[in-house]
Amino acid sequence: MKLFFPLLESYGNLAVDSNFRCLIADVCRMVELHPYPWEITPDRERVFREAAARELICIYFAIYNQYLDQSGKKRWCCKSTFMIEHVADIFRFYPDARFIFMVRDGRDVAVSAKASIFNHYHVFYTALRWRREQRTGLELLQALTGEQIMLLRYEELLADPVNTVQRLCEFIEEPYSEKMLEYHRFPEAKKSGGLSISWGNTAKPVLGGNRGKFRKLLTAREILLFEAVAGEELQELGYPLDNKPEQLMQIRELGAKERLVYLLDEVIQKIRVETRHLAKDSNSFARIRKIFYMIYIRLIRKYSSPDE
Length: 308
Fold this sequence. Notes:
The chain is mainly alpha-helical. It has helices at 17-32, 44-50, 56-71, 87-93, 106-113, 123-143, 154-159, 161-172, 187-195, 214-217, 220-236, 245-250, 256-280, 284-303, and strands spanning 99-103, 149-153. 56% of the residues lie in helices and 3% in strands.
């Protein structure tokens, strides 16, 4: 959804079989190139037959349903934060869907983002994205019922994992098992933890002390900047600010010079983190191959004409 939604216009009228098949083929190939290898090869014809409508999100559903069949499970779950943009579309096809709005102190998110290849690197850009997603989540909390959405704070999971996971299981109506907190012992966690240093924590037990890191790992200026951008959302979600309102007001009006400095720093940090991952990640080649595939798709769809 994140990668192909912006490209939909280039596929033309999806009511035309050839256009829809083309989109399906491109999406399925992207799945096959995922840096965390899927355990299925998506059946393109089956996706075409089973898509509930000629929409990208129905391709998404059809592929997940194929994975569900292979797994032998009863339900599937997607943890991508980007799906917060598509809640209304999900409800159109899955009116009984459940949403877990999991939040974490955005300043700690900024700490993690600095070392991960899957995020922005500079605090300013991390704060912008975090603010946008939390604002959407807060609006969903107001619009949906308690049976449709649950607010789960990451810090609560760290402090009391048993009760938090039990409460989560009640929400999704699944039986709780102690093995849920032993996830790090299972092959899937070990596999992801070994593929990328950005996923290393998935192969570890719940990290009880993995909070409040920003006070040691962000500078006072970075904390001030994050709070100036996303202070309202931090407070609404129960995270007290470290800075006073008058301090935040002083830096909210950014000029072109400051933004250029942030952009340059973003590029420098990206080069440094990418170099580190290239040297240490076993899935680096797969990740780069996927990146070049999406560049190829954007170019070829931009300059090719879909069927009428």
